[in-house]
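Explain this protein:
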Amino acid sequence: MSRDARADGRAPAPDSVSGHGHTRPHVARPPNVIRAALTIARKDLRIEWRTRSAFLSAVAFSVLALTLFFFAWDPTAIASIDLAPGVLWVTFTFSGLLGLHRSFGVEQTTRAIDALIAAPVSREAVFVGKGLANLVFVLALQLITLPATAILYNIPLASVAGPLALVMVLASLGLVVVGTLFSAMAVNTRLAELLLPLLALPFFVPIVISAGQATALVLAGRPVGDAAAFLRLLGGFDVVATVVCTLMYPSLIEQ
Protein backbone atom coordinates (compact mmCIF):
# COMPACT_ATOMS: atom_id res chain seq x y z
CA MET A 1 0.00 0.00 0.00
CA SER A 2 1.38 3.43 -0.91
CA ARG A 3 2.23 6.16 1.60
CA ASP A 4 -0.56 8.44 0.25
CA ALA A 5 -3.10 5.67 0.54
CA ARG A 6 -2.08 4.95 4.13
CA ALA A 7 -2.23 8.63 4.98
CA ASP A 8 -5.77 8.94 3.59
CA GLY A 9 -6.86 5.67 5.10
CA ARG A 10 -7.89 4.32 1.69
CA ALA A 11 -7.18 0.90 0.27
CA PRO A 12 -6.29 0.39 -3.38
CA ALA A 13 -9.14 -0.56 -5.67
CA PRO A 14 -9.51 -4.36 -5.73
CA ASP A 15 -10.31 -4.50 -9.45
CA SER A 16 -7.17 -2.67 -10.52
CA VAL A 17 -4.42 -3.85 -8.11
CA SER A 18 -3.78 -7.36 -6.91
CA GLY A 19 -2.44 -8.38 -3.53
CA HIS A 20 1.15 -8.15 -4.84
CA GLY A 21 0.72 -4.63 -6.16
CA HIS A 22 0.44 -5.67 -9.83
CA THR A 23 -2.27 -4.21 -12.08
CA ARG A 24 -4.76 -6.82 -13.18
CA PRO A 25 -5.27 -7.17 -16.93
CA HIS A 26 -8.45 -5.60 -18.23
CA VAL A 27 -10.91 -8.25 -19.39
CA ALA A 28 -13.01 -7.09 -22.34
CA ARG A 29 -16.67 -7.82 -21.94
CA PRO A 30 -18.64 -9.08 -24.92
CA PRO A 31 -21.00 -6.48 -26.40
CA ASN A 32 -24.64 -6.63 -25.43
CA VAL A 33 -27.27 -8.08 -27.74
CA ILE A 34 -28.55 -4.78 -29.15
CA ARG A 35 -25.11 -3.34 -29.90
CA ALA A 36 -23.90 -6.59 -31.47
CA ALA A 37 -27.08 -6.94 -33.53
CA LEU A 38 -26.75 -3.39 -34.88
CA THR A 39 -23.12 -4.06 -35.78
CA ILE A 40 -24.03 -7.21 -37.70
CA ALA A 41 -26.89 -5.43 -39.46
CA ARG A 42 -24.59 -2.57 -40.51
CA LYS A 43 -22.06 -5.07 -41.81
CA ASP A 44 -24.66 -6.86 -43.96
CA LEU A 45 -26.12 -3.62 -45.28
CA ARG A 46 -22.66 -2.29 -46.10
CA ILE A 47 -21.89 -5.42 -48.10
CA GLU A 48 -25.17 -5.14 -49.99
CA TRP A 49 -24.61 -1.43 -50.62
CA ARG A 50 -21.24 -2.17 -52.20
CA THR A 51 -22.50 -4.90 -54.53
CA ARG A 52 -26.24 -4.15 -54.83
CA SER A 53 -26.59 -7.48 -56.64
CA ALA A 54 -29.46 -8.92 -54.60
CA PHE A 55 -31.31 -5.61 -54.35
CA LEU A 56 -31.12 -4.87 -58.06
CA SER A 57 -32.21 -8.44 -58.85
CA ALA A 58 -35.19 -8.08 -56.51
CA VAL A 59 -36.15 -4.71 -58.03
CA ALA A 60 -35.91 -6.13 -61.55
CA PHE A 61 -38.06 -9.11 -60.58
CA SER A 62 -40.66 -6.84 -58.96
CA VAL A 63 -40.95 -4.53 -61.95
CA LEU A 64 -41.12 -7.47 -64.35
CA ALA A 65 -43.85 -9.19 -62.30
CA LEU A 66 -45.90 -6.00 -62.05
CA THR A 67 -45.59 -5.45 -65.80
CA LEU A 68 -46.65 -9.00 -66.64
CA PHE A 69 -49.68 -8.78 -64.36
CA PHE A 70 -50.57 -5.42 -65.90
CA PHE A 71 -50.60 -6.68 -69.49
CA ALA A 72 -52.52 -9.83 -68.49
CA TRP A 73 -55.14 -7.77 -66.67
CA ASP A 74 -58.54 -7.18 -68.25
CA PRO A 75 -59.85 -3.90 -66.78
CA THR A 76 -63.39 -4.74 -67.94
CA ALA A 77 -63.42 -7.92 -65.84
CA ILE A 78 -61.90 -6.71 -62.56
CA ALA A 79 -61.26 -3.25 -61.17
CA SER A 80 -57.69 -2.19 -60.53
CA ILE A 81 -58.45 -1.48 -56.87
CA ASP A 82 -59.46 -5.13 -56.45
CA LEU A 83 -56.51 -6.57 -58.35
CA ALA A 84 -53.71 -4.43 -56.92
CA PRO A 85 -53.54 -5.91 -53.36
CA GLY A 86 -53.04 -9.45 -54.59
CA VAL A 87 -50.49 -8.41 -57.21
CA LEU A 88 -48.68 -6.29 -54.66
CA TRP A 89 -48.22 -8.99 -52.03
CA VAL A 90 -47.39 -11.79 -54.45
CA THR A 91 -44.67 -9.56 -55.85
CA PHE A 92 -43.41 -8.56 -52.40
CA THR A 93 -43.27 -12.16 -51.20
CA PHE A 94 -41.26 -13.64 -54.04
CA SER A 95 -38.94 -10.67 -54.53
CA GLY A 96 -38.27 -10.59 -50.79
CA LEU A 97 -37.09 -14.20 -50.92
CA LEU A 98 -34.12 -13.04 -52.98
CA GLY A 99 -32.97 -10.85 -50.13
CA LEU A 100 -33.64 -13.50 -47.50
CA HIS A 101 -31.51 -16.03 -49.37
CA ARG A 102 -28.68 -13.48 -49.56
CA SER A 103 -28.77 -13.04 -45.77
CA PHE A 104 -26.59 -16.07 -45.02
CA GLY A 105 -25.55 -17.00 -48.55
CA VAL A 106 -23.27 -13.96 -48.81
CA GLU A 107 -21.03 -15.47 -46.10
CA GLN A 108 -21.21 -19.06 -47.25
CA THR A 109 -18.60 -19.00 -50.03
CA THR A 110 -15.80 -17.69 -47.79
CA ARG A 111 -17.10 -19.46 -44.67
CA ALA A 112 -17.29 -16.09 -42.93
CA ILE A 113 -20.23 -17.46 -40.98
CA ASP A 114 -17.74 -19.55 -38.97
CA ALA A 115 -15.98 -16.40 -37.80
CA LEU A 116 -19.33 -14.86 -36.95
CA ILE A 117 -20.26 -17.88 -34.85
CA ALA A 118 -16.89 -17.80 -33.09
CA ALA A 119 -17.24 -14.10 -32.29
CA PRO A 120 -17.90 -13.21 -28.62
CA VAL A 121 -21.55 -12.38 -29.23
CA SER A 122 -24.68 -14.31 -28.42
CA ARG A 123 -26.39 -16.37 -31.11
CA GLU A 124 -29.53 -14.34 -30.57
CA ALA A 125 -27.62 -11.18 -31.50
CA VAL A 126 -26.58 -12.78 -34.81
CA PHE A 127 -30.19 -13.65 -35.62
CA VAL A 128 -31.51 -10.22 -34.65
CA GLY A 129 -28.79 -8.49 -36.67
CA LYS A 130 -29.51 -10.57 -39.75
CA GLY A 131 -33.23 -9.93 -39.31
CA LEU A 132 -32.75 -6.16 -39.04
CA ALA A 133 -30.68 -6.10 -42.24
CA ASN A 134 -33.34 -8.17 -44.03
CA LEU A 135 -36.09 -5.87 -42.78
CA VAL A 136 -34.31 -2.82 -44.19
CA PHE A 137 -33.83 -4.70 -47.47
CA VAL A 138 -37.52 -5.60 -47.76
CA LEU A 139 -38.78 -2.15 -46.77
CA ALA A 140 -36.42 -0.48 -49.27
CA LEU A 141 -37.73 -2.82 -51.94
CA GLN A 142 -41.30 -1.88 -51.07
CA LEU A 143 -40.48 1.83 -51.36
CA ILE A 144 -39.70 1.21 -55.03
CA THR A 145 -42.34 -1.39 -55.83
CA LEU A 146 -45.27 0.42 -54.24
CA PRO A 147 -45.04 3.59 -56.37
CA ALA A 148 -44.62 1.45 -59.48
CA THR A 149 -47.82 -0.41 -58.58
CA ALA A 150 -49.64 2.87 -57.97
CA ILE A 151 -48.61 4.17 -61.39
CA LEU A 152 -49.54 1.03 -63.31
CA TYR A 153 -52.85 0.41 -61.57
CA ASN A 154 -53.83 4.04 -60.93
CA ILE A 155 -53.99 3.75 -57.14
CA PRO A 156 -54.12 6.91 -55.02
CA LEU A 157 -51.46 6.49 -52.34
CA ALA A 158 -51.45 9.93 -50.72
CA SER A 159 -54.75 9.46 -48.91
CA VAL A 160 -53.91 5.98 -47.53
CA ALA A 161 -50.16 6.32 -46.96
CA GLY A 162 -50.30 6.03 -43.16
CA PRO A 163 -52.51 2.92 -42.81
CA LEU A 164 -50.81 1.26 -45.76
CA ALA A 165 -47.38 1.84 -44.22
CA LEU A 166 -48.58 0.17 -41.00
CA VAL A 167 -49.73 -2.88 -42.95
CA MET A 168 -46.43 -3.01 -44.82
CA VAL A 169 -44.29 -2.86 -41.69
CA LEU A 170 -46.29 -5.47 -39.77
CA ALA A 171 -46.37 -7.90 -42.68
CA SER A 172 -42.72 -7.34 -43.58
CA LEU A 173 -41.62 -8.06 -40.01
CA GLY A 174 -43.37 -11.43 -40.03
CA LEU A 175 -41.95 -12.35 -43.44
CA VAL A 176 -38.44 -11.37 -42.40
CA VAL A 177 -38.40 -13.19 -39.07
CA VAL A 178 -39.62 -16.47 -40.53
CA GLY A 179 -37.55 -16.12 -43.69
CA THR A 180 -34.34 -15.39 -41.79
CA LEU A 181 -34.68 -18.55 -39.72
CA PHE A 182 -35.30 -20.76 -42.75
CA SER A 183 -32.50 -19.03 -44.64
CA ALA A 184 -30.10 -20.11 -41.89
CA MET A 185 -31.52 -23.61 -42.08
CA ALA A 186 -31.24 -23.95 -45.87
CA VAL A 187 -27.92 -22.21 -46.49
CA ASN A 188 -25.77 -25.31 -45.90
CA THR A 189 -27.75 -27.48 -48.32
CA ARG A 190 -27.02 -27.98 -52.01
CA LEU A 191 -30.44 -26.79 -53.12
CA ALA A 192 -30.70 -23.75 -50.87
CA GLU A 193 -32.41 -21.66 -53.57
CA LEU A 194 -35.16 -24.29 -53.86
CA LEU A 195 -35.37 -25.33 -50.22
CA LEU A 196 -35.87 -21.83 -48.82
CA PRO A 197 -39.15 -21.15 -50.70
CA LEU A 198 -40.42 -24.64 -49.93
CA LEU A 199 -39.83 -24.17 -46.21
CA ALA A 200 -40.88 -20.54 -45.89
CA LEU A 201 -43.89 -20.18 -48.20
CA PRO A 202 -46.30 -22.29 -46.09
CA PHE A 203 -45.56 -20.03 -43.11
CA PHE A 204 -45.96 -16.95 -45.30
CA VAL A 205 -49.56 -17.86 -46.16
CA PRO A 206 -51.27 -16.35 -43.06
CA ILE A 207 -49.13 -13.22 -43.37
CA VAL A 208 -49.84 -12.67 -47.05
CA ILE A 209 -53.58 -13.37 -46.69
CA SER A 210 -53.95 -10.98 -43.75
CA ALA A 211 -51.81 -8.31 -45.42
CA GLY A 212 -53.72 -8.66 -48.68
CA GLN A 213 -57.09 -8.33 -46.97
CA ALA A 214 -55.95 -5.34 -44.92
CA THR A 215 -54.45 -3.68 -48.00
CA ALA A 216 -57.66 -4.19 -49.96
CA LEU A 217 -59.69 -2.50 -47.22
CA VAL A 218 -57.25 0.39 -46.94
CA LEU A 219 -57.08 1.00 -50.69
CA ALA A 220 -60.87 0.91 -50.89
CA GLY A 221 -60.99 3.88 -48.54
CA ARG A 222 -62.46 1.99 -45.61
CA PRO A 223 -61.69 3.14 -42.04
CA VAL A 224 -58.66 1.60 -40.38
CA GLY A 225 -60.96 0.03 -37.79
CA ASP A 226 -62.39 -2.23 -40.50
CA ALA A 227 -58.92 -3.74 -40.95
CA ALA A 228 -58.22 -3.95 -37.20
CA ALA A 229 -58.78 -7.71 -37.07
CA PHE A 230 -56.16 -8.34 -39.76
CA LEU A 231 -53.74 -5.90 -38.15
CA ARG A 232 -54.10 -7.68 -34.80
CA LEU A 233 -53.48 -11.00 -36.53
CA LEU A 234 -50.32 -9.63 -38.15
CA GLY A 235 -49.13 -8.14 -34.85
CA GLY A 236 -49.76 -11.35 -32.94
CA PHE A 237 -47.98 -13.39 -35.57
CA ASP A 238 -45.00 -11.02 -35.42
CA VAL A 239 -44.68 -11.34 -31.65
CA VAL A 240 -44.96 -15.12 -31.59
CA ALA A 241 -42.68 -15.63 -34.61
CA THR A 242 -40.03 -13.27 -33.26
CA VAL A 243 -39.85 -15.00 -29.88
CA VAL A 244 -39.96 -18.56 -31.26
CA CYS A 245 -37.50 -18.00 -34.10
CA THR A 246 -35.02 -16.13 -31.90
CA LEU A 247 -35.07 -18.96 -29.35
CA MET A 248 -34.75 -21.63 -32.05
CA TYR A 249 -31.83 -20.06 -33.88
CA PRO A 250 -29.04 -20.88 -31.35
CA SER A 251 -29.76 -24.61 -31.42
CA LEU A 252 -30.20 -24.52 -35.19
CA ILE A 253 -26.87 -22.82 -35.92
CA GLU A 254 -24.93 -25.30 -33.76
CA GLN A 255 -26.07 -28.26 -35.87
Summary: The CA atoms of residues 150 and 227 lie 20 Å apart. Residues 35-254 form one domain. The radius of gyration is 24 Å.
